[in-house]
């Protein structure tokens, strides 16, 4: 059995908390530690939210075995080139233990608070398809993070396909 942990990082999880969580995962045989990619708490806007793609490579440098990644990074937060570079950098620092989860984004209030555009769902779905293709293109053909596509499961999220832009687990 593969045990994994997902933490809502936007709910006031400090750097000391992250390092303690990662250490506990390694000590207790948890195989993966994933985090949400949000800048705003869903319950208390005063709670701090450390940036996911800053925390992940820092944890990668402090750990040896656990997989790290996002569930999921909204396409509206970062341009494809920035997300591709951040994730491949974390992947290299970790020695191949990083996954990139991508999705459309859903928290409209968060987008408003931080000045991110929040287009209608059909537009975000189009952006997701385009960003996945672009990120995979920036990664090239060498070793790269696992790609996880998150969504509500509604028609149109993404259709699975084989090829160099997809990985399966």
Features:
169 residues, alpha/beta, 5 helices, TIM Barrel, single chain
Structure description:
α3 (80-94) links the parallel β4 (73-74) and β5 (98-103). α2 runs parallel beside α3 and α3 packs across α5. The protein has 5 helices and 6 strands; from the N terminus they run βαβαββαβααβ. The chain is of the alpha/beta class. Strands 1, 2, 3, 4, 5 and 6 form a 6-stranded parallel sheet that branches. Helices cover 38% and strands 14% of the residues. It has a single domain (4-149), classed as TIM Barrel (Alpha-Beta Barrel). It has helices at residues 15-27, 52-62, 80-94, 108-114, 121-139; strands spanning 4-7, 32-35, 67-70, 73-74, 98-103, 146-149. The radius of gyration is 16 Å and the shape is globular. The longest helix is centred in the last third of the chain and has 19 residues, at 121-139.
Concise synopsis of the structure shown:
The chain has 169 residues and is of the alpha/beta class. The protein has helices spanning 15-27, 52-62, 80-94, 108-114, 121-139, and strands at residues 4-7, 32-35, 67-70, 73-74, 98-103, 146-149. The radius of gyration is 16 Å and the shape is globular.
């Amino acid at each position: 059995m593969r045990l994994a942990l997902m933490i809502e990082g936007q709910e006031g999880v400090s750097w000391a908390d992250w390092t303690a969580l990662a250490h506990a995962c390694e000590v207790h045989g948890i195989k993966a530690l994933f985090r949400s990619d949000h800048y705003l708490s869903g319950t208390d806007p005063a709670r701090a939210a450390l940036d996911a793609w800053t925390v992940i490579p820092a944890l990668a440098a402090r750990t040896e075995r656990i997989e790290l990644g996002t569930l999921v990074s909204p396409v509206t937060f970062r341009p494809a080139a920035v997300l591709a570079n951040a994730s491949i950098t974390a992947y290299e620092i970790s020695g191949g233990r990083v996954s990139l989860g991508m999705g459309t984004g859903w928290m409209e209030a968060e987008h408003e608070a931080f000045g991110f555009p929040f287009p209608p769902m059909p537009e975000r779905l189009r952006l997701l398809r385009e960003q996945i293709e672009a990120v995979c293109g920036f990664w090239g053909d060498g070793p790269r993070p696992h790609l996880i596509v998150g969504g509500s499961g509604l028609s149109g999220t993404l259709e699975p396909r084989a090829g160099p832009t997809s990985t399966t687990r």
